[in-house]
Specification:
Elements: E1 5-7, H1 11-24, E2 28-34, E3 37-49, E4 54-59, E5 72-76, E6 81-85, E7 87-90, E8 95-98, E9 101-106, E10 120-127, E11 131-142, E12 146-152, E13 164-169, E14 172-183, E15 192-199
Antiparallel strand pairs: 1-9, 2-3, 2-5, 3-4, 4-8, 5-6, 6-9, 7-8, 10-11, 10-13, 11-12, 12-15, 13-14, 14-15
Length: 200
């Protein structure tokens, strides 16, 4: 199942997802593995502090004492969000965690992906929400609802999650938004990033 998840590195996108969890009041579960036992806590309230870069959790009913040395794990059904975080404050009535590590959501591109016949795609990218800059990059895959492209690390500063893209594919203009930016770790691909784009 973890193969269908993508990493979210942009702190603003992480914050927006967590804020949506609060607005929608989606149930939240925290857990921590302690040797062979697994402690689980249902959360009644969550507060995000972007200045201190921490998240405060208040249990719904159960009051567990987690081990402050070990990380906690977070899950909510909203976009199937999971992450790992370390504890900075721990008591029976409140738990405060540092800003998440390994923030992941389920990949929303459920339609079939295809290897493109044309390996490169030309597109205009809105940079810093100010102007459009044209690029031609290798296309990794494409589907009815999105595509993925490969970008070298020395150009990644042009790309932001939520930035708009206009691409010309098979003679038709496609307008989309960057969904995720993930470093490529496979041999021969290091030094490149995978950019996931969702079409409108």
């Amino acid at each position: 199942m973890i193969d269908n998840f993508i990493n979210i590195y942009n702190p603003q996108t992480q914050r927006e997802i967590l804020q949506q969890v609060g607005v929608l009041k989606t149930p939240i579960t925290l857990w921590q593995s302690l040797e062979t036992k697994k402690k689980v806590m249902k959360i009644g309230q969550m507060k995000i502090d972007t200045y201190l870069k921490q998240i405060e959790f208040i249990p719904r009913k159960e009051k567990y004492f987690f081990n402050s040395i070990l990380p906690i794990y977070f899950y909510t059904k909203h976009r199937s969000t999971i992450f790992k975080a370390s504890i900075s404050f721990n008591s029976g009535f409140k738990l405060i965690a540092r800003w998440p590590e390994a923030f992941m959501i389920e990949n929303e591109r459920e339609d079939d992906r295809f290897q493109p016949q044309k390996k490169e795609v030309t597109f205009a990218l809105r940079v810093n929400d100010l102007y459009y800059k044209e690029f031609t990059k290798l296309m990794i895959d494409i589907s009815q609802k999105g595509m993925a492209i490969r970008v070298p690390a020395n150009e990644i500063h042009f790309y932001d999650e939520k930035a708009n893209i206009k691409a010309l594919i098979n003679g038709k203009e496609k307008i989309g938004v960057i969904q995720n930016i993930t470093p490529m770790e496979l041999r021969g691909q290091r030094g490149f990033f995978r950019i996931g784009i969702k079409f409108f």
